[in-house]
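Researcher: I'd like a candidate sequence for this fold, 670 residues long. If you have to choose between options at a position, lean toward the conservative one.
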């Protein structure tokens, strides 16, 4: 059996040239690359095109390098010498193939060429078989750049890309630089981006041009169309039989005859002004005035009056000549009437008051005519920087790149309970609570904003707490949690936690690195809890070792308060519509209370109650949580008397400075 090396040697000796069609650029890259792939597949050396030398085992690397060098020399022979100047620095098949592919496979340019060929294809003088062959070839190339896919999202992307290319194909010649810039961009813009970019470009509508006339004068844009011939109605626009567009005829088609010279000629100076439409207040009296444009023809003016085409340019003694197809202004007349000077450049014209040198009008050059605009701001004389914001600049990205602004409000709240649950771990606190807790974790239902808060002694307890929470939700509401959203804390990505999520089909969404705002609901809820807990501790002068009770009480109360996110609805009522908000009347946190002593065997003269500190409510019992500083024990009882106006701690006893009450948690470096 022949070895792979012998097969390669026979192929090299028999067929040293891959294809007779050398690579000359993007226009024949597809056919050239297909020939190269077929040639490499023959001796089974196609892996040299997609594999780097570093990925080859050490024992085979010497033989691989030898064969790859010979194959690369054959690749060099299949490229035009002009192209080889750019590619001969790549001396392995993989680097050569990858570089050529990167240079000549711009998807948007290929799609543009294919779509343009499809739009303009016609049989003309071709025989039928050649015409059908061209159709088949275009179909194959179109499917190469726009492959069929069952993915609806991919279909929408391809559809937008195709219509974006059709938009570029139909642009007028004036926008060729913009089209070339879009086609040459490194990333393919979306259809909406192209629309926005084109709409930003300010250009003037093409005006009819008379090939028999040499004159081109300053034109004023007005809201009325009184200066146009009355014989042409809205539905009777001229039609060109050459380019099939409206607005001009065959003898004035730029595509057929070329563009007119881009030189602006000033109207001949005469005592009578050129034709101009009057304002509504202009006199319509019969005046036998004669206007003479630069082409020597004469036309009779039907009226004379005042025209306010622009607020800053009041024009007097304006002749109304319906036969004139343009609204024209005499340069000599306007300079004398308005005492202004006019400066022409290749792109702009500026009108300035000679007494104040203030700009009173500007115009833009288009098709050999200068068009006055209603905006007299001199800022229009320079390019607008808004059109430069989308220009790709690698140096600007490296030197000026900033973070994307995060939206303040998104209307994407969950539609049902526990469709999305937010979670976050807070802590550690510098001082442990009375029961040794240093952390707490919250679970927030996105639909109702109802919050579950659990105290923890260390982060390792998170998984067991989440298991209990999941079972509780499933049992009490007969609903499974669909999505859990958290930050990138390690405890959320432990092996047991990940396995549990995967086993129960829960999607785990995590925020990007150093982007806590993506878990903003849980972060903001934790802040709300801590701020409320800090406030009630300070108000009652309760020592900060009771921060755990304060946070639990804050969660209990916040769940039973109206929320602006819910349009003033109450979270607890959304989840438990048939339950009362409070099973027991709420009391002032930190006040003095007296708990009835129920211990049997008490002396008849002993006290019947114990003085305690009120610290909140029981989650599973219908009673108040009270703490005895004498016995250092918690009591849950319904037989409690409250002195709500009497804080248990005075300001001079066990109270602490404001800065030490529920301090900011210590952030671990890991």
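Model: Candidate sequence:
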């Amino acid at each position: 059996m022949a070895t792979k090396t012998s097969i390669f040697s026979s192929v090299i000796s028999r067929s040293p040239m891959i294809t007779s069609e050398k690579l000359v650029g993007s226009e024949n890259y597809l056919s050239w690359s297909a020939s190269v792939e077929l040639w490499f597949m023959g001796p089974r050396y196609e892996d040299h095109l997609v594999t780097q030398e570093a990925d080859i085992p050490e024992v085979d690397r010497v033989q691989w390098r030898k064969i790859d060098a010979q194959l690369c020399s054959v690749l060099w022979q299949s490229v035009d010498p002009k192209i080889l100047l750019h590619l001969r620095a790549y001396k392995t098949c993989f680097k050569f193939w990858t570089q050529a592919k990167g240079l000549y496979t711009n998807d948007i340019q290929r799609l543009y060429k294919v779509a343009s060929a499809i739009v303009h294809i016609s049989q003309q003088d071709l025989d039928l078989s050649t015409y059908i062959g061209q159709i088949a070839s275009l179909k194959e190339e179109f499917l190469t750049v726009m492959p069929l896919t069952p993915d609806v999202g991919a279909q929408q992307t391809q559809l937008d890309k195709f219509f974006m290319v059709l938009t570029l194909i139909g642009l007028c010649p004036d926008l060729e630089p913009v089209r070339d810039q879009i086609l040459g961009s490194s990333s393919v813009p979306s259809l909406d981006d192209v629309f926005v970019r084109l709409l930003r470009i300010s250009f003037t509508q093409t005006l009819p041009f008379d090939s028999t006339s040499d004159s081109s004068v300053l034109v004023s844009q007005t809201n009325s169309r009184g200066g146009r011939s009355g014989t042409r109605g809205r539905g009777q626009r001229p039609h060109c039989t050459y380019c099939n567009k409206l607005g001009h005829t065959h003898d004035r088609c730029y595509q057929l005859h070329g563009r007119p010279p881009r030189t602006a000629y000033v109207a001949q100076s005469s005592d009578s002004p050129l034709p101009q439409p009057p304002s509504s207040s202009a006199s319509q009296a019969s005046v036998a005035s004669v206007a003479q444009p630069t082409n020597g023809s004469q036309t009779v003016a039907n009226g004379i009056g005042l025209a306010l085409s622009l607020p800053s340019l009041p024009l007097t003694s304006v002749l109304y000549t319906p036969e004139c197809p343009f609204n024209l202004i005499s340069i000599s007349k306007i300079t004398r009437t308005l005492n202004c000077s006019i400066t022409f450049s290749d792109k702009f014209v500026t009108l300035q008051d000679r007494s104040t040198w203030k700009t009173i009008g500007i115009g833009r050059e288009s098709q050999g005519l200068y068009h006055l605009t209603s905006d007299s701001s001199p800022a229009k004389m320079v390019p607008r920087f808004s059109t430069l914001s989308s220009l790709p600049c690698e140096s600007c990205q490296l030197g000026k790149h900033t973070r994307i602004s995060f939206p303040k409000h998104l209307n994407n709240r969950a539609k049902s309970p526990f469709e999305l649950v937010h979670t976050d771990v807070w802590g550690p606190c510098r001082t442990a609570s009375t029961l040794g807790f240093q952390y707490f974790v919250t679970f927030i239902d996105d639909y109702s904003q109802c919050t579950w808060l659990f105290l923890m002694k260390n982060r390792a307890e998170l998984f067991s707490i989440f298991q209990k929470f999941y079972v509780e939700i499933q049992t009490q509401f007969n609903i499974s949690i669909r999505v859990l959203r958290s930050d990138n804390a390690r405890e959320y990505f432990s092996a047991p936690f990940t396995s549990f999520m995967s086993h129960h089909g829960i999607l785990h969404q995590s925020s990007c690195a150093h982007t806590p705002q993506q878990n903003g609901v849980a972060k903001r809820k934790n802040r709300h809890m801590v701020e409320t807990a800090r406030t009630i501790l300070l108000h009652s002068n309760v020592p900060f070792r009771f921060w755990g009770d304060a946070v639990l009480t804050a969660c209990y109360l916040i769940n039973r308060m109206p929320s602006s996110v819910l349009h003033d609805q109450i979270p607890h009522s959304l989840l438990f519509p048939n339950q009362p908000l409070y099973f027991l009347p709420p009391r002032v946190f930190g006040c003095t209370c007296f708990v009835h002593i129920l211990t049997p065997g008490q002396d008849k003269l002993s006290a019947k109650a114990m003085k305690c500190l009120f610290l909140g409510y029981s989650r599973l019992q219908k009673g108040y949580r009270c703490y005895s500083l004498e016995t250092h024990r918690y009591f849950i009882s319904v037989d409690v008397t409250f002195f709500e106006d009497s804080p248990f701690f005075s300001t001079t006893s066990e109270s602490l400075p404001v800065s030490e009450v529920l301090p900011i948690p210590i952030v671990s470096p890991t």
